[in-house]
C-alpha cells in the first residue's frame, strides 16, 4: 500500500469545500473529516436519524471527486452480501460444459482453477472499495443494524484494509478509502470497533445553522419563511414524540410551503401541513395542540 497525498490542507478548507457542495458543516464535523484523511482512520458517525450523517459521506465524495461505494446494513447481512461470493450458476455451467468435453482430456484440477478465478467472482461493496484504483469514499450505512459477527468482519477489514479469499489469496488495498460508518444507536457497538474509528456525533443543528441549511437547500424560500419554519420545528422537537422531525423533514416542509405559495405561515397552515413534517398521527395531534396554544 503506497503512501497517499493528503486530500485536504486544513480544517477551514474542508469546511469551505463542504459548503461548496451545499453541506453546511460546523468546526467539529470539518475537523473530524480532516483528521480521518490525515490519520487514515474510519469515522463512526452517530446521532438521530435525518441529521445529515449519510449526506456527510455523500458530500465528501462529491467534494473530493471520489467514487461513493455504499454498503446498506440490515439484519441478516452476511459476508456474501458485504464482501464477495462466487457465481455458483456460472460455475455449474462451466463444470457441465467440461463434462461434455471430457474426451478433450480436461482434468478436474484445471476446471477447479478456472471456476475459482476472477471471471466467476461477484464483488460486493467492501471488496469493491478495497480493490478500487481510483479514490473512494466507503459508506457503511446503519452499521448498528448488523449482527455482532458481521460487525467483527467489518472490524477485521477496516483494521488492515485487506481481504483474504481462500481460492485466490489476499487482496490488499492500493489506496485507503475514506470510510464513514453511520449509526442511529439502535444497539451498542463493540468497543473494538469504536476504538478503530474517529467518533463524530451529529445532533440537530442550532437554530441559526438550520435556517442557513434551509436557505441553502430550498430554492425560492424567503428569509422570513425560513426563520418561521426552523422556529416551529424547534418548538415541536421539544415535545414528547415518537419521532422528532429531522433536518431532511424540515427541508421537505419548507419545500412544501414554497410550492403552496406560502410566504408567511400561520397556525392553520402549519397544522394543515404537519403530515409532511411528522410521521405518526399521535405526534401530529400533539404538535397541533402545541401550535394552537402558541
Q: Could you explain the architecture of this structure?
A:
There is one protein chain. With 294 residues, this protein is an alpha/beta fold. The chain folds into three domains: 11-76 and 124-201, Rossmann fold (3-Layer(aba) Sandwich), CATH 3.40.50; 84-118; 207-293. Helices cover 50% and strands 14% of the residues. The strands form three sheets. A five-stranded parallel beta sheet has the order 2-5-8-1-9, sandwiched between helices. The chain has a two-stranded antiparallel sheet with strand order 3-4. The radius of gyration is 24 Å and the shape is elongated.
Care to give the gist of this entry?
With 294 residues, the protein is of the alpha/beta class. It is 50% helix and 14% strand.
What is this structure's SSE topology?
Layout: H1 11-20, H2 27-39, E1 43-46, H3 53-64, E2 67-72, H4 79-82, E3 84-86, H5 88-100, H6 108-115, E4 121-123, H7 125-131, E5 136-141, H8 148-160, E6 162-165, E7 169-172, E8 178-183, H9 191-196, E9 198-201, H10 207-217, H11 223-237, H12 247-259, H13 267-272, H14 274-277, H15 281-293
Parallel strand pairs: 1-8, 1-9, 2-5, 5-8
Antiparallel strand pairs: 3-4, 6-7
Amino acid at each position: 500500500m503506497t503512501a497517499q497525498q493528503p486530500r485536504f490542507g486544513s480544517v477551514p478548507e474542508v469546511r469551505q469545500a463542504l459548503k461548496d457542495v451545499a453541506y453546511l458543516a460546523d468546526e467539529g464535523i470539518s475537523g473530524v473529516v480532516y483528521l480521518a484523511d490525515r490519520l487514515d482512520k474510519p469515522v463512526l458517525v452517530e446521532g438521530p436519524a435525518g441529521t445529515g450523517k449519510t449526506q456527510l459521506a455523500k458530500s465528501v465524495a462529491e467534494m473530493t471527486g471520489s467514487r461513493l461505494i455504499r454498503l446498506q446494513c440490515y439484519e441478516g447481512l452476511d459476508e456474501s452480501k458485504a464482501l464477495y461470493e462466487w457465481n455458483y450458476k456460472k460455475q455449474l455451467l462451466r463444470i457441465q460444459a467440461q463434462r461434455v468435453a471430457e474426451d478433450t482430456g480436461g482434468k478436474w484440477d484445471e476446471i477447479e482453477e478456472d471456476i475459482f478465478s476472477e471471471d466467476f467472482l461477484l464483488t460486493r461493496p467492501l471488496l469493491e472499495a478495497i480493490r478500487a484504483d481510483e479514490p473512494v469514499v466507503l459508506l457503511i450505512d446503519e452499521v448498528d443494524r448488523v449482527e455482532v459477527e458481521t460487525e467483527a468482519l467489518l472490524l477485521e477489514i477496516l483494521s488492515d484494509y485487506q481481504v483474504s479469499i481462500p481460492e485466490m489469496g489476499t487482496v490488499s488495498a492500493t489506496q485507503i478509502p475514506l470510510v464513514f460508518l453511520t449509526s442511529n444507536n439502535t444497539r451498542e457497538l463493540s468497543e473494538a470497533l469504536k476504538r478503530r474509528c474517529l467518533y463524530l456525533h451529529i445532533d440537530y443543528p442550532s437554530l441559526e445553522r438550520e435556517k442557513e441549511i434551509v436557505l441553502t437547500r430550498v430554492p425560492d424560500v424567503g428569509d422570513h419563511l425560513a426563520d418561521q419554519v426552523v422556529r416551529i420545528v424547534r418548538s415541536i422537537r421539544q415535545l414528547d414524540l415518537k419521532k422528532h422531525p429531522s433536518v431532511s423533514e424540515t427541508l421537505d416542509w419548507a419545500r412544501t410551503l414554497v410550492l403552496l405559495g406560502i410566504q408567511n405561515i400561520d397556525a392553520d397552515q402549519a397544522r394543515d401541513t404537519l403530515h409532511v413534517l411528522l410521521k405518526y398521527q399521535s405526534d401530529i395531534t400533539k404538535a397541533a395542540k402545541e401550535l394552537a396554544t402558541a
